[in-house]
Specification:
The structure holds 2 protein chains of 2 kinds. By secondary structure, chain A is mainly alpha-helical. Chain A has helices spanning 3-31, 39-49, 59-82, 99-110, 120-123, 126-156, 166-192, 248-257, 278-302, 306-333, 336-340, 364-377, 392-403, 414-433, 447-473, 475-479, 486-500, 515-545, 561-595, and strands at residues 202-215, 233-243, 439-440, 443-444. Chain A has a domain at 202-243. Chain A is built from 19 helices and 4 strands. Chain A has a two-stranded antiparallel ribbon. In chain A, strands 3-4 form a two-stranded antiparallel sheet. The longest helix of chain A has 35 residues, at 561-595. Chain B is elongated. The longest helix of chain B has 39 residues, at 563-601. Classes of the chains: A mainly alpha, B alpha+beta.
Chain lengths: 598, 688
């Protein structure tokens, strides 16, 4: 790692640390209803919608209401895409999106995955982007926070039958947390050059003629491949360039803050209109971890023991730092095959060195490696470099980051509830090991909680493994592979991992905008999201109903270095056991082939 | 105690266990353990694959498939053996418990009257309705009701009260309890319970016959193990398509075969803990029985591990059952020797433990010998419930001893005065945790005999140990606050409840429970029954009343109240053993991956041999070694499962760190060594 990389990582982590506490305490204040202002807007909204804000819900009603709310979101986004040609704010006159792509995109944005099978600038009208996608960016983020707050209430309350009012929680999260933060961040982005307009795309004449290879497509829009499985290309040239326009800044802010990651443009945060400068890049990275980090503090505050929150925070931080250092190191090492051809991959004043394939020169190795780690750990999925072009081990970092289950900071809300599920598992085994019925924060962990914990931990890996198996077994699945050999396997594994963990980043390379992948991945996204949320809310309900056990010196403490170690070990072990064989056939073998001079 | 003890692999137990482990191969028994059922199905599948290979259609060399199949069967049988061995021990112990009956003799009357003749019968032969006579100094042979006579009975072992109680026919004080002792006089009583129908008997029968029910933690753990099994099923099943795909894109090698996948699956699923889980539970109950404690359910034993608060009766538990004279404190103008002499005279015919201890103290301090009361012409005045005094009448002296207010009343009724200075002495004595016994001669109050509660030796250390375990001890006593506080301080308990009534005990338990604590208590008296029923872990003394035993969820055959510490330890051990073996089992998977993954795919991607860090001889021997290790580890861990992971009161953090290091880190390292070792043997023997 270069000095620049160390400084970047250090400054990044310190800034995050400084911001987490105040924001975390503020979120606790909002969610406990202790906020002094804003009551007028909130109460007007409740009156308008007929919500009785003091009426609380049991976990089942809470869950059903949340599912209903998300289902409405799916329908809304689907219809907006299917009808966009007849709706306003479509200056490019983009046609209605195909049913399978609309379905995939609707599920994708509602589940906070933001997997994008389409290219934003050539598919979606401004109305679809704003009213469909951006709105779901807010609501899917709010859903995650609401679920984790309900789980925290499960720990806080005792002998209670309710875990809160879902409508009130959704309103407060959106109104007091997501909207103000997004507003400030959008204005900052505009100041740095992110565009915000409603005008049509602009064509300009370039000074030079650009020559490029255009992949040949068959009648159905799929790339044609030669006998070896490589795509067939034909040379092409052009002297016009289209500059896409649109209301980018308003969507960009919540894309990062809500760990959504669905870019306005296909190039996502690698596009200069989305992420123009190293400074915006820094703040985009910061905004990804901002709320997930703060929620740890919220957790500590709400359960009345800040140490509990910091313990989770510490476990997440250590994993994050290790992964970030790994990604930046592997990418800086460069490509041995290029080195043997005499390419200069060293760091100099004029170049970043290392493996620059697929990276923006304005970001370089460190900013790209760090961004890739953050975006995959946080279930964000925004990208500022092409993960497909990372070195095998560098590319395994984003893959492994997602396979840990998106619990290292993770998605807003979902990261913390995922980590708390791991904590419950850790407490269960450790509790047995010290000879007591396992308890976490004064709540006994019994068979019902274990059942739900098992489902929550089990559902994602099964979706990934079985989904990948289906894809490699079917003709339709294999057709989308762009690269032959083990890398093709990695591409499919990455796609399934990304959707089932609700990350949404793509390895690229895989042509996934086909009915087969649209449907397969949509199923992965939906169950990867709600297959975890439902058991988590069930745990919340069960915990809330329990008595609280007092802490004695015989109680295992769930804060401090020992528990941090235990938690990290647990997360890594579960990830390893689930994915080692699959990783061995993908990135590991690629790496061995690459470095043994294939 | 003539109990048979068994060594771990006692041939007497091993032989039937081997037979049993084959009998347990029946599918409807295997089905009950989902994880082992997967191994069972795997064994059957590989056996079929082997038969197929014998006909020349095998997917792999038939020797290899046979090796895997045989060792998979061994895995199932080893798990069965562990369970059978634990069950065998438990049954043998229950059987030997039956023989453990207190051999007391009873004087059975032929007519229900004291005038009738009697003959001796063993207490266990008494039946409901039989009438027996019990004389002074004898044990009451069974529970029953007094129908004739009055006697003072020492029930301190049961009720916790050190003072003897009066039992007489009719009224509220007619019930007597088996195991208590008549101190003076005699009673005729009618037996009210058949010995064969006692609580303990019924429980032994239960342990022997009833199928063990899974405890709550065991159920939760099973759920986790099943979840892991499902995940690993997903991991291995999907490897087939991955492998097919890899073969097709790389154009090398052959796809992974079924035998290898089954072997991988069995190695990955937590067979070690699943195979030993039921043995751990049975062994826990059996360890309790070894400690002479019978628990009504495994749930109760497990709950014992979680206890936060322990209620202990003072008398009999913390202090010796009876108080002893510790000092003579004379009134002003009286010498200590005079007081001692009078006190000794008044106690010569007093058979209560307190009375005897006065005689002993007088001899120790002033060498006052025992005198012949008849020779002195003395008339002994028995303790009566009315006067609450006892004493002796000599020709010109009238010596009495009793509680302060009784003596005050007595002296004042004779026209004397109670010296003011003694009020202070009485208070001081009480504050020291002792009981003041006043002695008067005629109208003169001679002074105070200090009766001291003797705190049992070593009890303070036991309480310190409990504190280190995180358990708070509370002493319960009928004494006043001053006395209670002094004894509590001496014994080193954390808290005490003085002037305890049954209601106060119940309230105390409820209060702790509402604060989220788990309360354990020991009890034996009928008045303890409500509190026992309320407590989470309730240990009734075998010497206690029927009501107490019914209310508790464990019975201590030795009637030793400090046994609770052992019960807590056993409960903790059961959980620790499960947790540690689970950790060990999961940690093992790392090494197994390193053994099997390169072996399974090296034909497709030769570069994967870099992952063969153990340098195992060949793919076939790597896979076989992992399977053999997986089977043998069950056998190696049987002693640990039966004995339990040792518990030490070190505090949660240290305990966790130790067990994580041993079973977590050890679980990662041991299989690397084990698999390599087995592989070396296999390649030397040229098996594969």
């Amino acid at each position: 790692m270069t000095n620049h990389a160390w400084i970047l990582l250090g400054v990044y982590f310190l800034t995050l640390l400084l911001l987490s506490k105040p924001l975390g305490l503020y979120i606790a204040q909002v969610m406990e209803g202790r906020l002094k202002y804003g009551g007028v807007i909130e109460n007007t909204l409740y009156r308008f919608c007929g919500i009785k804000k003091d009426e609380e819900m049991g976990w089942l009603n809470f869950t059903l209401a949340l599912l209903f709310f998300n289902l409405l979101g799916v329908i809304a986004v689907y219809l907006l895409q299917r009808l966009q040609i007849s709706l306003p704010l479509n200056p490019q006159r983009f046609a209605n999106v195909s049913p399978d792509s609309s379905f995939n995109t609707a599920i994708s944005f509602v589940t906070n995955t933001n997997w994008q099978g389409y290219s934003g600038e050539s598919t979606m009208s401004y109305l679809t982007q704003m009213l469909g996608l951006a709105v779901q960016n807010f609501f899917s983020a709010a859903t995650g926070i609401v679920v984790v707050i309900a789980l925290i209430r499960g720990f806080v309350r005792h002998t209670a039958s309710t875990i809160g009012n879902v409508w009130v929680d959704l309103t407060r999260v959106t109104l007091y947390i997501l909207l103000p933060l997004s507003l400030v961040f959008s204005v900052f982005l505009v100041s740095q050059g992110v565009i915000q307009n409603f005008v049509a795309n602009k064509d300009i004449q370039t000074l030079e003629v650009t020559k490029y290879d255009n992949p040949k497509l068959d009648a159905s829009g799929q790339p044609i491949k030669d006998a070896k499985g490589n795509p067939v290309t034909e040379p092409a040239m052009t002297q016009t360039q289209t500059l896409p326009m649109g209301p980018v800044a308003s969507q960009e802010a919540i894309k990062m803050l809500g760990t959504n990651g669905g870019g306005f443009f296909n190039a996502n945060s690698a596009h200069p209109y989305e992420n123009p400068t190293p400074l915006t890049n820094f703040f985009q990275m910061l905004s990804i971890f901002l709320i997930p980090g703060a929620l740890c503090i919220t957790f500590g505050r709400m359960v009345g023991d800040p140490r509990q929150g910091w313990t989770i925070y510490a476990a997440m931080s250590l994993l994050f730092l290790a992964f970030a250092i790994g990604a930046m190191t592997f990418e800086q090492q460069g490509n041995p095959l290029l080195a043997s051809l005499g390419t200069d991959q060293s760091v100099t004043a004029m170049q970043a060195g290392g493996n620059m394939e697929g990276k923006e020169t304005r970001f370089g190795i460190a900013d790209s490696g760090l961004f890739a780690t953050i975006t995959t750990l946080a279930s964000c999925g925004a990208v500022n470099a092409m993960h497909d072009s990372f070195t095998p081990l560098g590319g395994m970092i984003p893959l492994a980051s997602m396979q840990l289950g998106e619990v290292v900071f993770g998605g807003v809300g979902s990261g913390l509830y995922g980590m708390l599920v791991f904590a419950i598992l850790a407490v269960f085994i450790a509790g047995l090991m010290i000879g007591r019925t396992p308890e976490y924060l004064g709540k006994k962990i019994e068979s019902f909680e274990m059942k739900m914990t098992s489902i929550a931990i089990l559902v994602t890996p099964l979706l990934v493994l079985i989904g990948t198996a289906i894809a490699v077994m079917t003709e339709a699945g294999r057709a989308g592979i762009a690269n032959p050999g083990a890398h093709g396997f990695s591409e499919i594994l990455y796609a399934l991992t990304s959707v089932a963990n609700n990350n949404g980043s793509a390895f690229a390379g895989l042509s996934a905008n086909t009915p087969f992948y649209n449907v397969l991945l949509a199923i992965g996204m939906w169950f990867g999201r709600f297959g975890v949320i439902v058991p988590v809310l069930a745990i919340a309900g069960a915990l809330a109903a329990k008595k609280r056990i007092s802490v004695t010196s015989g109680t295992m403490s769930t804060h401090g270095p020992l528990f941090v170690t235990l938690l990290i070990g647990e997360v890594i072990l579960v990830g390893l056991l689930n994915y080692v064989p699959a990783l061995a056939l993908g990135p590991v073998v690629e790496h061995l082939v690459l470095w043994t001079g294939h | 105690m003539s109990r048979k003890t068994f060594t771990l692999f006692d041939p007497e137990l091993v032989k039937p266990a081997i037979v049993e482990s084959f009998k347990k191969l029946s599918p409807h028994i295997q089905w009950r353990n989902p994880v082992m059922f997967v191994v069972y199905v795997g064994s059957i599948l590989t056996t079929i694959l082997w038969l197929q290979s014998m006909r020349g259609q095998g997917e792999a060399p038939s020797g290899f498939i046979l090796g895997i199949a045989v060792w998979l069967w061994f895995t199932v049988i080893f798990a069965n053996f562990a369970e059978a061995l634990a069950e065998g021990r438990s049954k043998a112990q229950a059987a030997s418990l039956r023989g453990l009956k207190k051999e007391t003799w009873a004087k059975k009357l032929h007519e229900p009257t004291s005038k009738a003749s009697w003959h001796s019968v063993p207490a266990i032969d008494l039946r409901k309705g039989d009438v027996v006579i019990v004389d002074a100094g004898e044990f009451i042979p069974a529970d029953g009701d007094v129908i004739e006579g009055v006697a003072s009975v020492d029930e301190s072992a049961i009720t916790g009260e050190s003072a003897p109680v009066i039992r007489e026919s009719g009224g509220d004080f007619s019930a007597v309890t088996g195991g208590t002792r008549v101190l003076s006089d005699w009673i005729v009583m009618r037996v009210s319970a058949n010995p064969g129908e006692t609580f303990v008997d019924r429980m032994i029968a239960m342990v022997e016959n009833a199928k063990r029910q899974k405890t709550p933690n065991e159920i939760a753990l099973t759920i986790l193990l099943v979840a892991l099994t499902i995940v690993f099923l997903g991991v291995t099943v999907t490897l087939l398509p991955y492998s097919l795909f890899s073969v097709s894109v790389s154009g090398n090698g052959t796809a992974v075969n079924m035998t290898t996948l089954i072997a991988l699956l069995v190695c990955l699923i937590p067979t070690t803990i699943a195979g030993l889980l039921s043995a751990i539970g049975v062994a826990g109950m059996s360890r309790m029985m070894q400690a002479n404690v019978i628990a009504t359910s495994g749930r109760a034993v497990e709950a014992a591990g979680d206890v936060d608060v322990l209620l202990l009766d003072k008398t009999g538990t913390i202090t010796l059952g009876n108080r002893q004279a510790a000092a003579f404190i004379p009134a002003k103008g009286v010498t200590e020797a005079t007081l001692a002499d009078a006190a000794q005279l008044s106690s010569l015919a007093d058979e209560t433990p307190e009375g005897r201890s006065i005689v002993v103290l007088a001899k120790q301090k002033f060498n006052i010998r025992e005198r012949d009361i008849q020779g002195l012409g003395a008339v002994f005045v028995h303790f009566s419930a009315h006067t609450r005094m006892s004493g002796v009448d000599l020709e010109d002296r009238q010596i009495r001893k009793g509680a302060a207010d009784s003596i005050r009343k007595h002296v004042e009724s004779l026209g004397g005065a109670f010296p003011k200075q003694l009020d202070q002495v009485v208070d001081d004595v009480a504050r020291r945790g002792s009981t003041p016994l006043l002695v008067s001669d005629g109208i003169t109050v001679l002074g105070v005999v200090e009766l001291k509660d003797i705190v049992k030796g070593g009890i303070k250390e036991r309480f310190a140990e409990l504190r280190r375990m995180g358990i708070k001890t509370i002493m319960v006593t009928g004494d006043n606050r001053l006395t209670a506080a002094a004894i509590a301080a001496e014994a080193g308990v954390d808290d005490f409840l003085a002037e305890a009534t049954p209601e106060a005990k119940l309230a105390l338990i409820r209060q702790h429970q509402s604060e989220g604590r788990l309360v354990a208590m020991t009890g034996d008296g009928t008045n303890d029954a409500p509190a026992l029923a309320q407590a989470d872990v309730a240990v009734a003394m075998n010497s206690g009343t029927q009501a107490a035993k019914e209310a508790g969820n464990m019975v201590d055959l030795d009637s030793n109240p400090t046994k609770l510490i052992e019960i807590v330890e056993t409960g903790k051990q059961m959980l620790m053993t499960r947790g540690s073996l689970t950790t060990f089992s999961i940690a093992n998977d790392v090494a197994k991956y390193f053994a099997i993954i390169p072996a399974a795919f090296v034909s497709t991607y030769p570069q994967l041999s870099a992952l063969n860090v153990m340098h195992l001889a060949s793919p076939a021997s790597a896979i076989l070694s992992a399977v053999i290790f997986n089977a043998l580890i069950i056998i190696f861990l049987i002693p640990l499962a039966l004995k339990g992971v040792p518990y030490r009161p070190l505090g949660a953090a240290i305990l966790l760190r130790r067990n994580l290091a041993i079973y977590g880190l050890g679980g990662v390292i041991v299989p690397f060594i084990g698999i390599k070792f087995i592989d070396m043997i296999l390649s030397v023997a040229r098996v594969v």
